[in-house]
Amino acid sequence: MKKMTTNLHLRFEQKLYMSPYLHQMMEVLQLQVLDLEQRINEELQTNPMLEIDESEKNSNEGEIEEDNTKFDEMVKIFEDSSDMGGYTFSSPKDSVKLDIIEGVLTKPESLQEHLIWQLRLNVFNEKDYQIGERIISNINDKGYLTSSIKEIASGMNNSTVEVERVLALIHSFEPYGVGAKDLQECLLIQIRYLPRKDKWSEKIIKNYFDLLYKHKVKEIAHKLGVDLVTAQKSIAFIQKLDPNPGLLYYNKITEYVIPDAVIEKNNGDFIIIVNDDWIPRLRIHKRYRDMIKNQKLDSKIRKYLKEKVKNALLFIKSIEQRKTTLYRIVNSIFKFQKEFFYSGPEHIAPLTLKNIAADVDVHESTVSRVTSNKFIQTPFGIYEMKYFFSKKIHTENEGDISSKTVMELLKDLVENETKPLSDDEIKEILNKKGIHIARRTISKYRKELKILPSYLRKK
Hints:
Elements: H1 20-29, H2 33-46, E1 50-53, H3 61-75, H4 81-84, H5 96-102, H6 111-122, H7 126-137, H8 149-156, H9 160-170, H10 183-193, H11 201-207, H12 209-213, H13 217-224, H14 228-239, E2 261-266, E3 269-274, E4 281-284, H15 286-293, H16 299-336, H17 338-343, H18 353-360, H19 364-371, E5 375-378, E6 381-384, E7 392-395, E8 399-402, H20 403-415, H21 423-432, H22 439-448
């Protein structure tokens, strides 16, 4: 007979708790101005405690900060934890809690951002992270890898084994199938990771892909040694897989946009305006505030009203925080890109999310969220905020310049060419200007600018 023993084990777990305010704020931060207007209308419909404040709006940062201070004082009225539990609100400068959340949670705005987010969660050394970033930058909108493993490895002075290992990890990311070199591999990746399985589908894709492509069901059934119905069921399963998994995250920007912020010249100086003309100001309905203060009110009704008021306060605070954060980030972009605002796109400077994050004292993913799918109106037109971010390229004469500056030079060369210039010829012209970049980089920039290759361009 075995002796029974009792053992005690001490286990430490680190769990991430996200308060309702942080959850709400992250949702509101990423909304474009029109989306925010719609979200406010939805909240007005579902929460009777909210009403539109018709008083004059604040327009500058000082007034925004003052408004937040008044709001925080108002919140204290409703912080009776006996009814609903205590929530705490962080000021714009108190970003410790937010940084923890921002470093782990990111709602994807594009396929690349969604993959980078998963990469951060799964890679714990800088080298693998850089390899992963390079791989992801070579994945197109449909989800396919556009460069070979050998090309990526040689471009980073890494071994193909290292690149293959990180690529295998990316294959496990959602949406399943991204990072494949072709349709066959894309389908095999999906088969491997999807929870629902089919007995014959992987074998069909791996061994009889040509027959599948030609839809030769009888021949496939014969090769597998199964009846026709079984083969048809497996093929039907394969047909439900997604041949372009990346398109799930493809967001085509509409041609007509409303800027989320405006940077304009006024008497020789620049002013920054957060475009909130579309956004109604909200407040707590006075009638319900007075009801809550009535001690004779039924306790259940009072508890219900306090819960609704607390949710309303969370929502108002999130909107104010969005405005403050947006203002500070746009102000930081202006500070780094003054030459652009004074002289135009040819003078844009190299800039990274990390630069802005350090300047504003927030997490990089906060900057990514605030700048994604938002636009700034400038003296030179309306630009997506992410336009102002680019890597640096070293030159012999002018130090580091932005890749966007090189793209502007490329565009100017093509617009003024007397005969179509090849990528090699453009490379030589830029080399003479002291800008040394590879021909494949010229080709990449040309494609981004939607410029046809020289043999398809005609004067």
